[in-house]
Amino acid sequence: MAPDDIPHPARTAATRRGAVILSSMLVAIVIATVGVYIYQQLRQNLELKQAAVAVTGGDPTMGRLYLARFGCGGCHAIPGVDAATGQVGPELGGIARRVYIAGVLTNTTDNLIRFMVDPKSVDDKTAMPKTGITAEQARDVAAYLYSLRE
What we know:
CATH class: Mainly Alpha
Low-confidence stretches: none
Number of domains: 1
Shape: rod-shaped
Distance between the termini: 66 Å
Strand content: under 5%
Oligomer: single chain
Largest sheet: 2 strands, antiparallel
Number of helices: 5
CATH architecture: Orthogonal Bundle
Strand order of the largest sheet: 1-2
Order of helices and strands: HHEEHHH
């Protein structure tokens, strides 16, 4: 056995310490990266919510509750609303990026509210029922829908 092949206790301990330090550094980098990602997502969600409030004048938190209360999820898939997995109407995530509402109205807050309150006034052939939602409640729903990223 050559002298270089003989394990040296000081080198072995140093190697272990180096591996522990390297592993700790990698874990810290991963944690920091995940933290930055989560922060950016939260910040982006807050910006979307603030923009939706500014555009609609509604309350997104109340809008989410109204979507559940009026049973919208029976026909629509709606991100963030429990059991809103309906397949009758269109998926409502990303509605802020759409050009039209119900295929006929320009996508504006007032038009979205009008359609939610009285769908048949927009399109007499729509399958969407009149739910009894008020214009103010519909404004809150619009704020929630416009605050969704997807």
